[in-house]
Amino acid sequence: MSLRKEHELHNRRKGRNFGVGLLLAGFVVLVLALTMVKVTSAGFTFPEIEGGE
Amino acid sequence: MSDASINASMIREDDASLGDYFALLKPRVMSLVVFTALVGLLAAPVGVHPVVGFCAILFIAIGGGASGALNMWWDSDIDQVMKRTKSRPIPAGKVDKGEALSLGLALSGLSVIMLALATNVFAGAFLAFTIFFYVVVYTMWLKRATPQNIVIGGAAGAFPPVIGWIAATGSMTIEPWLMFALTFLWTPPHFWALALFMRNDYDIADVPMLTVTHGRRSTRKHILVYTIILATFALATAFTGVGGPIYLTVALVLNALFLKGAVQIWRRDEAICEDDNFKVERSFFKLSLLYLFLHFGAILAEALLKPYGLGGW
C-alpha cells in the first residue's frame, strides 16, 4: 500500500521524531559541557603519546 | 524502508508515543533513584562540579530507567494479568517486547559508560552491577522463585545513594551504606503493605509474594518485625556521620508513626480490613513514601548545613 505524501501516520510520528531529535541535541550539548568542565579542571593533563617528541 | 513498502498492518492507531517509551523507564521509581542518588552525592565530603554532578545523577537515573525497561520486557507476561500493571506499554500493546529489550540494553550501556567517563570507573562499574542485580538476580531469578523476592529486590533499589557517593568520592566508606540500609530495610514493609491491599494481583500472576506463600497473618507479622528493625536502625543512624539533630527529630516522629501503623496492621484481622477497604494498610503505604523521602531529606539538610556549622553533631 502506498501512502499519501502527508499521511496521518507522518503527523503522528512527527512529534515522536521531534522529541528524539531534541533528546539527541541535548545529549550533544551535555557531552560538550562535560568535556569543557573536564579539560578546564585543575587536575587535567593531556595524555602522553608514545614515541612523541 | 520506503513508504511504498509499508503495508496496512504496520499502520497502527495506537502507535507508541515518546511518553510510552518514557513509561518503560518506570518514572516513579526513577524519581526515587534520582532523589536518593542526589542525597548520596551531596552528602559526600567531596565537592563536585555542578555539571559533573548533574551528569552523574542523570546517568544513574538512566541506568535505573534501563533496569525498569528490562524488567518490563522480562515480566510482560505477568504484567498482563495484574490490575496494577496491565496498562504498562507492553501489555497495553503500545510497545513491542523487542523494543523494550533494545531500549533497556542500549540505555544500560550508555548510562554505565557515560557515568564512568563523567565521574570514575568505580561508579560506572557499580551502576553496571546494580543493573545486573535488578534485572538478572531479582527479575529473572528470584522474583518468581522465593517469597523473599521483595527483600532481595530492595537491595537493587537501595544502591543509588551508594553510587552517588562513589561518583563524588571515587571510594567507599560506611556512610553510603547507612543510606543503603535505610532503603533496604524500608522496602519490605512498603511492598508487603501494598501486597495486602492489592492481594488478587499477585495470586493471579503466580508471583510467590509472602501473602500468597505464607499467608496474610504471617505477612502482617513480617511487616511489624521489619518495621521494628527499620526503626531501630533509622534512629541509630541519627548518631552517625550522616545524622544530626534535624535527622533525629524527623526520625523520631516518623518512626513513631510508622511503628504505630505496623502495630495496627499486625493487630487487624481480615474481616475488619474488608469492611474498611484496607484503610490502615493504604495509609501505612502512603506514610512509607513520606517516610523515605523525609529521612533522605533530613540527611540532605544535615549535609547542606554542615559548611555553615549547623548540620551534624
Automatic annotation (TrEMBL), chain A:
Keywords: Membrane, Transmembrane, Transmembrane helix. The keyword Membrane applies. The chain crosses the membrane at residues 20-37. This is Cytochrome C oxidase assembly protein.
UniProtKB/TrEMBL annotation, chain B:
It catalyses: heme b + (2E,6E)-farnesyl diphosphate + H2O = Fe(II)-heme o + diphosphate. The keyword Transmembrane applies. Pfam families: UbiA (PF01040). The chain crosses the membrane at residues 21-45, 51-74, 122-142, 149-171, 177-197, 223-240, 246-263, 284-305. One of its GO terms (cellular component) is plasma membrane. One of its GO terms (biological process) is heme O biosynthetic process. GO terms for molecular function: protoheme IX farnesyltransferase activity. It comes from the Bacteria. Interacts with CtaA. Belongs to the UbiA prenyltransferase family. Protoheme IX farnesyltransferase subfamily. This is Protoheme IX farnesyltransferase.
